[in-house]
Protein backbone atom coordinates (compact mmCIF):
# COMPACT_ATOMS: atom_id res chain seq x y z
CA UNK A 1 0.00 0.00 0.00
CA UNK A 2 1.23 3.46 -0.95
CA UNK A 3 -0.01 6.39 1.14
CA UNK A 4 -0.04 9.65 -0.86
CA UNK A 5 -0.54 12.94 1.01
CA UNK A 6 -0.97 16.46 -0.40
CA UNK A 7 -0.57 19.24 2.17
CA UNK A 8 -1.85 22.65 1.09
CA UNK A 9 -2.25 25.97 2.88
CA UNK A 10 -5.82 25.21 3.99
CA UNK A 11 -6.37 21.46 3.48
CA UNK A 12 -4.67 18.06 3.57
CA UNK A 13 -5.71 15.33 1.12
CA UNK A 14 -4.68 11.69 1.51
CA UNK A 15 -5.06 8.74 -0.82
CA UNK A 16 -4.76 5.01 -0.22
CA UNK A 17 -3.14 3.69 -3.40
CA UNK A 18 -2.75 0.09 -4.58
CA UNK A 19 -0.94 -0.69 -7.87
CA UNK A 20 -1.25 2.92 -9.01
CA UNK A 21 -5.01 3.03 -8.35
CA UNK A 22 -6.61 5.24 -5.70
CA UNK A 23 -8.71 2.99 -3.44
CA UNK A 24 -9.97 5.83 -1.22
CA UNK A 25 -9.37 9.58 -0.97
CA UNK A 26 -9.99 11.70 2.13
CA UNK A 27 -9.59 15.37 2.99
CA UNK A 28 -9.34 17.43 6.19
CA UNK A 29 -8.65 21.11 6.97
CA UNK A 30 -4.96 21.91 7.53
CA UNK A 31 -3.90 22.30 11.19
CA UNK A 32 -2.22 25.39 12.66
CA UNK A 33 0.36 23.70 14.92
CA UNK A 34 2.57 20.56 14.88
CA UNK A 35 0.47 18.58 17.41
CA UNK A 36 -2.76 19.29 15.56
CA UNK A 37 -1.06 18.42 12.29
CA UNK A 38 -0.07 14.92 13.43
CA UNK A 39 -3.63 14.42 14.78
CA UNK A 40 -5.08 15.28 11.36
CA UNK A 41 -2.68 12.83 9.71
CA UNK A 42 -3.91 10.16 12.16
CA UNK A 43 -7.56 10.91 11.32
CA UNK A 44 -6.89 10.75 7.58
CA UNK A 45 -5.45 7.23 7.70
CA UNK A 46 -7.86 5.82 10.32
CA UNK A 47 -8.73 2.23 9.41
CA UNK A 48 -6.35 2.08 6.45
CA UNK A 49 -3.64 -0.64 6.27
CA UNK A 50 -0.08 0.29 7.27
CA UNK A 51 1.68 1.77 4.23
CA UNK A 52 4.75 0.22 2.62
CA UNK A 53 5.69 3.67 1.28
CA UNK A 54 4.62 7.26 1.95
CA UNK A 55 4.67 9.96 -0.75
CA UNK A 56 4.14 13.55 0.39
CA UNK A 57 3.61 16.74 -1.61
CA UNK A 58 3.67 19.79 0.67
CA UNK A 59 3.34 23.51 0.25
CA UNK A 60 6.53 25.40 1.15
CA UNK A 61 10.08 24.68 0.13
CA UNK A 62 11.74 21.53 1.33
CA UNK A 63 15.38 21.33 2.24
CA UNK A 64 16.94 18.29 3.92
CA UNK A 65 13.51 16.88 4.85
CA UNK A 66 12.46 20.08 6.62
CA UNK A 67 9.68 22.29 5.30
CA UNK A 68 9.66 26.09 5.30
CA UNK A 69 6.91 28.52 4.29
CA UNK A 70 8.25 31.17 1.92
CA UNK A 71 5.30 33.27 3.09
CA UNK A 72 5.05 32.81 6.86
CA UNK A 73 1.43 33.98 6.77
CA UNK A 74 0.40 30.76 4.99
CA UNK A 75 1.53 28.09 7.53
CA UNK A 76 3.30 29.70 10.50
CA UNK A 77 4.74 26.46 11.96
CA UNK A 78 6.32 25.53 8.60
CA UNK A 79 9.55 27.17 9.84
CA UNK A 80 11.96 24.29 9.38
CA UNK A 81 9.38 21.76 10.62
CA UNK A 82 10.99 18.27 10.33
CA UNK A 83 8.18 16.83 8.21
CA UNK A 84 10.18 13.88 6.82
CA UNK A 85 11.31 12.79 10.32
CA UNK A 86 7.83 13.16 11.85
CA UNK A 87 6.16 11.10 9.13
CA UNK A 88 8.93 8.49 9.07
CA UNK A 89 8.50 8.08 12.86
CA UNK A 90 4.74 7.79 12.41
CA UNK A 91 4.70 5.28 9.55
CA UNK A 92 8.11 3.51 9.82
CA UNK A 93 8.54 3.02 6.08
CA UNK A 94 10.36 4.69 3.13
CA UNK A 95 9.17 8.20 2.37
CA UNK A 96 9.47 10.65 -0.51
CA UNK A 97 8.79 14.34 0.15
CA UNK A 98 8.53 17.17 -2.35
CA UNK A 99 7.01 20.62 -2.80
CA UNK A 100 3.39 20.36 -4.00
CA UNK A 101 3.85 22.62 -7.05
CA UNK A 102 6.84 20.56 -8.17
CA UNK A 103 4.91 17.30 -7.74
CA UNK A 104 1.95 18.76 -9.64
CA UNK A 105 4.22 19.92 -12.49
CA UNK A 106 5.46 16.35 -12.85
CA UNK A 107 1.91 14.97 -12.75
CA UNK A 108 0.79 17.38 -15.49
CA UNK A 109 3.89 16.67 -17.57
CA UNK A 110 3.26 12.90 -17.34
CA UNK A 111 -0.44 13.37 -18.16
CA UNK A 112 0.56 15.14 -21.39
CA UNK A 113 2.99 12.37 -22.34
CA UNK A 114 0.31 9.71 -22.18
CA UNK A 115 -2.75 11.54 -23.50
CA UNK A 116 -1.43 14.09 -25.98
CA UNK A 117 0.01 12.37 -29.01
CA UNK A 118 1.44 15.49 -30.63
CA UNK A 119 3.36 18.41 -29.21
CA UNK A 120 3.75 16.98 -25.71
CA UNK A 121 5.75 19.69 -23.98
CA UNK A 122 9.39 19.14 -22.99
CA UNK A 123 9.43 22.43 -21.05
CA UNK A 124 6.42 22.99 -18.84
CA UNK A 125 5.67 25.49 -16.10
CA UNK A 126 2.85 24.65 -13.70
CA UNK A 127 1.35 27.57 -11.77
CA UNK A 128 -1.08 26.96 -8.92
CA UNK A 129 -3.31 29.86 -7.89
CA UNK A 130 -4.64 28.70 -4.54
CA UNK A 131 -4.30 29.83 -0.90
CA UNK A 132 -0.90 31.05 -2.10
CA UNK A 133 0.71 31.02 -5.55
CA UNK A 134 3.16 28.19 -6.24
CA UNK A 135 4.46 26.22 -9.15
CA UNK A 136 6.84 23.72 -10.61
CA UNK A 137 9.12 23.43 -13.61
CA UNK A 138 9.91 20.61 -15.99
CA UNK A 139 12.87 21.64 -18.16
CA UNK A 140 14.20 19.42 -20.95
CA UNK A 141 11.93 16.63 -19.63
CA UNK A 142 13.49 16.80 -16.14
CA UNK A 143 11.70 17.97 -13.03
CA UNK A 144 13.70 20.84 -11.55
CA UNK A 145 13.95 20.93 -7.73
CA UNK A 146 17.06 23.08 -7.23
CA UNK A 147 19.78 22.98 -4.57
CA UNK A 148 17.55 24.78 -2.01
CA UNK A 149 14.25 23.17 -3.08
CA UNK A 150 13.06 26.52 -4.43
CA UNK A 151 12.55 25.84 -8.14
CA UNK A 152 9.10 26.88 -9.35
CA UNK A 153 8.21 29.30 -6.54
CA UNK A 154 6.79 31.78 -9.05
CA UNK A 155 4.48 33.34 -6.44
CA UNK A 156 7.42 35.26 -5.03
CA UNK A 157 8.62 36.78 -8.26
CA UNK A 158 7.50 40.37 -8.60
CA UNK A 159 5.11 41.99 -11.07
CA UNK A 160 4.45 45.63 -11.98
CA UNK A 161 0.65 45.23 -11.67
CA UNK A 162 -0.49 46.47 -8.26
CA UNK A 163 -3.17 44.99 -5.97
CA UNK A 164 -6.38 47.06 -6.01
CA UNK A 165 -6.00 47.74 -2.25
CA UNK A 166 -2.36 48.89 -2.72
CA UNK A 167 -1.23 46.40 -0.03
CA UNK A 168 2.15 45.45 -1.51
CA UNK A 169 4.07 43.88 1.38
CA UNK A 170 4.25 40.10 0.99
CA UNK A 171 4.67 37.69 3.92
CA UNK A 172 8.00 36.59 2.37
CA UNK A 173 9.50 40.01 3.19
CA UNK A 174 9.36 41.38 -0.33
CA UNK A 175 7.04 43.83 -2.06
CA UNK A 176 4.86 43.36 -5.16
CA UNK A 177 4.99 39.55 -5.30
CA UNK A 178 2.58 37.78 -7.67
CA UNK A 179 1.14 35.98 -4.62
CA UNK A 180 0.14 39.32 -3.11
CA UNK A 181 -2.21 40.05 -6.01
CA UNK A 182 -3.33 36.71 -7.50
CA UNK A 183 -3.65 34.13 -4.68
CA UNK A 184 -7.02 33.21 -3.20
CA UNK A 185 -5.93 34.97 -0.02
CA UNK A 186 -5.02 38.10 -1.99
CA UNK A 187 -8.29 38.10 -3.95
CA UNK A 188 -10.30 37.76 -0.74
CA UNK A 189 -8.29 40.58 0.86
CA UNK A 190 -8.76 42.93 -2.10
CA UNK A 191 -12.48 42.11 -2.28
CA UNK A 192 -12.92 42.69 1.46
CA UNK A 193 -11.24 46.10 1.16
CA UNK A 194 -13.36 47.11 -1.83
CA UNK A 195 -16.74 45.94 -0.55
CA UNK A 196 -16.23 46.68 3.16
CA UNK A 197 -17.01 43.18 4.44
CA UNK A 198 -15.06 39.93 4.81
CA UNK A 199 -15.11 38.09 1.50
CA UNK A 200 -13.51 34.90 0.17
CA UNK A 201 -12.14 34.50 -3.35
CA UNK A 202 -15.09 32.17 -4.12
CA UNK A 203 -17.54 34.95 -3.19
CA UNK A 204 -15.57 37.35 -5.36
CA UNK A 205 -15.91 35.06 -8.39
CA UNK A 206 -19.69 34.80 -7.81
CA UNK A 207 -20.03 38.57 -7.46
CA UNK A 208 -17.97 39.12 -10.63
CA UNK A 209 -20.90 37.72 -12.66
CA UNK A 210 -22.90 40.87 -11.86
CA UNK A 211 -20.51 43.50 -10.47
CA UNK A 212 -17.82 45.06 -12.69
CA UNK A 213 -15.79 46.13 -9.63
CA UNK A 214 -15.43 42.49 -8.60
CA UNK A 215 -14.59 41.56 -12.17
CA UNK A 216 -11.87 44.25 -12.23
CA UNK A 217 -10.10 42.68 -9.22
CA UNK A 218 -10.00 39.29 -10.98
CA UNK A 219 -8.94 40.82 -14.32
CA UNK A 220 -6.11 42.66 -12.58
CA UNK A 221 -4.93 39.38 -10.99
CA UNK A 222 -5.09 37.64 -14.39
CA UNK A 223 -3.02 40.47 -15.87
CA UNK A 224 -0.41 39.93 -13.14
CA UNK A 225 -0.29 36.19 -13.88
CA UNK A 226 0.14 36.94 -17.60
CA UNK A 227 2.99 39.34 -16.82
CA UNK A 228 4.74 36.66 -14.73
CA UNK A 229 4.19 34.10 -17.53
CA UNK A 230 5.87 36.37 -20.10
CA UNK A 231 8.77 37.05 -17.73
CA UNK A 232 9.32 33.34 -17.13
CA UNK A 233 8.89 32.45 -20.79
CA UNK A 234 11.60 34.95 -21.76
CA UNK A 235 13.86 33.52 -19.04
CA UNK A 236 13.30 29.81 -19.70
CA UNK A 237 11.80 29.47 -23.22
CA UNK A 238 8.81 27.32 -22.27
CA UNK A 239 6.54 25.05 -24.37
CA UNK A 240 3.42 25.24 -22.22
CA UNK A 241 2.02 26.83 -19.08
CA UNK A 242 -0.44 24.81 -16.99
CA UNK A 243 -2.75 26.60 -14.55
CA UNK A 244 -4.13 24.79 -11.48
CA UNK A 245 -5.37 25.49 -7.96
CA UNK A 246 -8.83 26.49 -6.78
CA UNK A 247 -8.49 30.06 -8.12
CA UNK A 248 -6.71 29.00 -11.31
CA UNK A 249 -9.48 26.48 -12.06
CA UNK A 250 -12.29 28.86 -11.02
CA UNK A 251 -14.80 29.67 -13.74
CA UNK A 252 -13.34 32.07 -16.30
CA UNK A 253 -9.88 32.52 -14.75
CA UNK A 254 -7.98 30.69 -17.50
CA UNK A 255 -9.84 32.70 -20.16
CA UNK A 256 -8.92 35.97 -18.41
CA UNK A 257 -5.24 34.95 -18.22
CA UNK A 258 -5.23 34.08 -21.94
CA UNK A 259 -6.85 37.43 -22.81
CA UNK A 260 -4.27 39.33 -20.76
CA UNK A 261 -1.40 37.34 -22.29
CA UNK A 262 -2.70 38.10 -25.80
CA UNK A 263 -1.71 41.74 -25.21
CA UNK A 264 1.97 40.78 -24.90
CA UNK A 265 4.22 40.83 -27.98
CA UNK A 266 3.97 37.53 -29.92
CA UNK A 267 7.42 36.39 -28.82
CA UNK A 268 6.33 36.63 -25.18
CA UNK A 269 3.22 34.50 -25.58
CA UNK A 270 3.07 30.77 -24.83
CA UNK A 271 0.16 28.28 -24.82
CA UNK A 272 -1.72 28.20 -21.51
CA UNK A 273 -3.89 25.23 -20.49
CA UNK A 274 -5.85 24.05 -17.46
CA UNK A 275 -4.53 21.31 -15.17
CA UNK A 276 -5.63 18.00 -16.71
CA UNK A 277 -5.51 16.39 -13.25
CA UNK A 278 -7.66 19.14 -11.72
CA UNK A 279 -7.28 19.73 -7.97
CA UNK A 280 -5.40 16.41 -7.49
CA UNK A 281 -2.38 17.27 -9.68
CA UNK A 282 -0.07 17.33 -6.64
CA UNK A 283 -1.43 14.10 -5.18
CA UNK A 284 -1.19 12.22 -8.49
CA UNK A 285 2.21 13.72 -9.30
CA UNK A 286 3.74 12.58 -6.02
CA UNK A 287 2.18 9.10 -6.49
CA UNK A 288 3.89 8.85 -9.86
CA UNK A 289 7.19 10.09 -8.46
CA UNK A 290 7.04 7.54 -5.64
CA UNK A 291 6.73 4.70 -8.11
CA UNK A 292 9.19 6.02 -10.69
CA UNK A 293 11.72 8.10 -8.77
CA UNK A 294 14.91 7.04 -10.45
CA UNK A 295 13.76 8.11 -13.93
CA UNK A 296 12.36 11.47 -13.17
CA UNK A 297 13.91 13.54 -10.44
CA UNK A 298 17.06 15.51 -10.60
CA UNK A 299 17.31 15.81 -6.83
CA UNK A 300 14.55 14.82 -4.43
CA UNK A 301 14.46 14.27 -0.69
CA UNK A 302 14.19 10.63 0.22
CA UNK A 303 14.34 9.02 3.62
CA UNK A 304 14.19 5.31 4.29
ZN1 LIG B 1 6.50 37.12 -1.65
Topology:
Elements: E1 2-7, E2 11-18, E3 21-29, H1 34-44, E4 53-58, E5 61-63, E6 66-68, E7 79-81, H2 83-91, E8 95-99, H3 100-115, E9 124-129, E10 133-139, E11 142-144, H4 179-182, H5 184-195, H6 201-207, H7 212-236, E12 240-244, H8 245-248, H9 253-261, E13 272-274, H10 281-291, H11 293-296, E14 301-303
Parallel strand pairs: 1-4, 4-8, 9-12, 12-13
Antiparallel strand pairs: 1-2, 2-3, 5-6, 6-7, 8-14, 9-10, 10-11
Helix pairs in contact: 3-10, 5-6, 5-7, 7-9
Bound molecules: zinc ion (ZN).
Notes on the structure:
The chain is of the alpha/beta class and 304 residues long. Residues 294-304 have low confidence and may be disordered. The protein has eleven helices and 14 strands. The protein folds into two domains: 2-99 and 280-303, ATPase, nucleotide binding domain (Nucleotidyltransferase, domain 5, 2-Layer Sandwich), CATH 3.30.420; 102-278, 2-Layer Sandwich (Nucleotidyltransferase, domain 5). It has helices at 34-44, 83-91, 100-115, 179-182, 184-195, 201-207, 212-236, 245-248, 253-261, 281-291, 293-296; strands at 2-7, 11-18, 21-29, 53-58, 61-63, 66-68, 79-81, 95-99, 124-129, 133-139, 142-144, 240-244, 272-274, 301-303. The chain starts with a strand and ends with a strand. 37% of the residues lie in helices and 23% in strands. The protein has a six-stranded mixed beta sheet, with helices on both faces. It has a five-stranded mixed beta sheet with strand order 11-10-9-12-13, sandwiched between helices. Bound molecules: zinc ion. Residues 71, 156, 170, 172, 174, 177, 179 line the site of zinc ion (ZN).
